[in-house]
Amino acid sequence: xxVADCPRCGAKEITFDLQxxxxxxxxxxxxxxxxxxxxxxxxxxPTIFLVSxxxxxxxxxxxxxxxxxxxAVNEIVRVERYIGIQDNTTEKPPEYLPEDINNIFKxxxxxxxxxxxxxxxxxxxxxxxxxxxxxxxEEAEGLNNRVKRNLxxxxxxxxxxxxxxxxxxxxxxxxxxxxxxGAHEGVLSKDDAxxxxxxxxxxxxxxxxxxxxLEIAGQRRAARREIG
Length: 228
Fold this sequence. Notes:
The chain is α+β, with helices and mostly antiparallel strands. About 40% of the residues lie in helices and about 20% in strands. The protein folds into 2 domains: about 1-85, no CATH class; about 100-215, no CATH class.
């Protein structure tokens, strides 16, 4: 059994019959995320929920199968959300992003999957905004309040001061330096949003994924030398 709100009939805190589970991915080498097929006892309609393992020690219970448990599984897993049209996307965020940026990227990808290009671009811009603000020093030549506030001007400053790799400058032209790239006016096309997505993905990879992979590789190398 699983207790959750039913997205089909609106019943709150209703009991579902949990009939099947599929492992979707694992986080931190132990935290399992599952999609579980459930049937509401109020409206008898099915829903697939995304749930996550609560504690490290619950792996055995999950491996044995949540449908086999005779009690509500809410003590073992947390209900994240139900699976809907927003999950019809092939765009996955880069690895090792900060949680807030990771969630915003996923929201942007979900918007892209249902054709909401302006909303998607706004989410990807927000990813860039959060990621690049942390790169700014407290004070520097040419770094005024307007540059700090405006994403397009901030990117130009970061490129000009060799804080961002020059190889990404051409891709960054999808973010206009006057801030008027269409996202706020609601006039972006699918191609426009795809350009912003591409730049966002590559920049986030450079800032977060590649350094973390290097760190992990260094840790493995150190561990091998220690064993040797």
